[in-house]
Amino acid sequence: MLLAPVLGLVLQLSVQAPGELDSALRTRLQSRLEAFVAAGRVPGVSCGVAASTGEVALAAGRRDRRHEEPLRPDDLLCAGSTGKTFFAALALARVADGKLALDTLAGELLGGEPWFERLPNADALVLSDLLAHRTGLPRYEFQPAFARDLLARPEHVWKPEELLAYVLDHRPAFAAGEGFVYSDTNYILAGMMVERATDAEPYAEIEARFLRPLGLEHVRPQAARRIEGLVQGHAGARDPLGFPDFVLDEAGVFCTNPQFEWAGGGFVTSAGDLARWARALYGGDALPAEQRKSMLAAQSAPELGRGVGYGLGVIVWQTPHGEALGHEGFFPGYMSAMRYWPTHDVAVAVQVNTSEAAALPGGLGALCDELCALVLDP
To answer: Under 8 Å CB-to-CB from 198, ≥6 apart: which residues?
Structure first.
């Protein structure tokens, strides 16, 4: 179902359709995906490539460990924190049209709420630090009380302020702006700021500004317990939120309401559309040049790895093929990664229907790098 149109400026995006990659390269990419599945315990892997030379979406393995039905390229998987890139892009688009500024204090928009002053660093929380995870806010999603309540109330529709309640009166990790700690709490608060400043529903704005103009038909809000087209996810035996191994029942209904993730991720996608989004966001005109420059001004993020930086909703890696821009994502049952190499105008995205890291024969970022190498030297 299409979401309601939004008021205000909607960027007119141009879409370059380069056609499909040649068949020989498609075969080599497919072989690498099949080898990835064979080498580990991953049920299935989906891959998208978007480049000036062509596009392709591929898949290998199964939709579900219990059945032989193959994973298809257009199947949907929870994108986890790669979905933050859509919410960050929306925030920056609203900066471009004058509804927000990067130095807008959260208190200017939300300070009248009775809970606001109980947030860690409440008086110093600005939009840019929220988008860059530089506020010192703790992670609501890994608070034991939240994990317990999430599974105990599977039908509950979570309000953003209910999520923030799990970190009220906690000590911040550092003074706002003086360090980096990755926390979904930042994006819940940033999403609330965007919604309050514009009086518009963020999912509807994202669809109107980005998804429809770019033709991303396999990107949908993660907004209900049953999502058409979503394949089974496998969380393993030690999921940090306590999810069961099979996160969907036989009717395709989530074990709890995945809607809670909202601006912390909040989308299901295909890998093909995730790669197309990465190329449009980092190498196209999804954002005006000034806002894209702000987004890519990364600072050190040692928590994410040596030499890794984080901008405004974007991870910056140094790879064998040069600097790569993108994000990675985890949601119980699923993992995702997308990377774009500006030097080569190549985007690669991969998704798996397991969140059990030990099941992978290597990291998803490394798989993106390997697939990129095949594209650059077929």
So the answer is: 8, 94, 99, 100, 205
Residues 6+ apart with CB under 8 A from 27: none
SS3 percent helix, strand, coil of the chain, rounded to 5, is 40, 20, 45
Number of structural domains the chain divides into = 1
Domain carrying residue 371: 29-97+197-376
238 in any annotated domain: yes
- The predicted-structure confidence for 221-277, as pLDDT tens digits, reads as follows 999 999 999 999 999 999 999 999 999 999 999 999 999 999 999 999 999 999 999
Establish how many alpha carbons lie within 13 A of residue 365's alpha carbon, considering only the half-sphere containing its beta carbon: 20
> Does any domain span residue 359?
yes
Helix (H, G, I), strand (E, B) or coil at 78: strand
| Contact indicator for 234, 356 with CB cutoff of 8 Å | yes
Inter-residue long-range contacts of 143-148, CB under 8 Å, 24+ positions, other chains counted: 143/167, 147/240, 147/241, 147/242, 148/242
